[in-house]
C-alpha cells in the first residue's frame, strides 16, 4: 500500500478531555506524542491512532462519520453503554425506530456513535470498533478503495464498505440520501505515505482518482470530506 491511515483526527474544544473519554470507552492508552499531540494508541488490529486537535468552532450538525462499536452479548452492550454514560456520554435521538436494537450515544462534545446489538452479522468478524460508518455515495467508497488499496467488502444498492487486508474496522458509506455538508468535518482521516514513497506523487495520484486540492497537503474526497496527507519529517 502506498498510503495508509495514520490517524482519525477529532477537532475538539477540549482535546485532553475528549481523549480521556475515548480512552475510557475503548481502553486505549492516552499519550502526548511530540509530533501528533494528544493521541490514543490502539491495542488491537484497528491499524490507526486517534488524534485530538484543538478547535474553537462548536459542532454545527451531525458528523459525516461515526463509530459503530460491537457487542459480544446483551450484557456486554449494556456494559459499554453504562461505561460511556459514566464517562460523560449521553443518549441521542436521531430518529431511530423502537424496534432497532442498537443504542445511539454522543460523546461529551456531541460526536455521535452507536453501540451495536450482539449478533450483528455484518460486523461479526470485527473488533470492538466494528465500523467507521460514513454518510456518502457509492463513488466515495470506490475512491477510498482505490486510494488505500483496500478491497470492497460490500457494494449493493448504492451502499459500499471497504476493509484493510489485515482486518480492523470496516469503513462504510450508506448511499443516498446524503445530508448536506455543514462546515468542515470534525472527524477526518490523516494519511501517511509508505516508507520510500513520495508524498507529492501520492497527492497527484489522489487528485487523479477524484480528490480535490484544498491546500498543499489538505484534500477533499469526491463527497467533499476533508483529509490530509502527512508530510514526512524533513519533507
UniProtKB/TrEMBL annotation:
Domain of life: Bacteria
Residue span, VOC domain: 4-118
SUPFAM superfamilies assigned to the protein according to its UniProt record, in alphabetical order: Glyoxalase/Bleomycin resistance protein/Dihydroxybiphenyl dioxygenase (SSF54593)
One Pfam family matching this protein: Glyoxalase_6
InterPro entries, alphabetized: Glyas_Bleomycin-R_OHBP_Dase, Glyoxalase_6, VOC_core
Stated name of the protein: VOC family protein
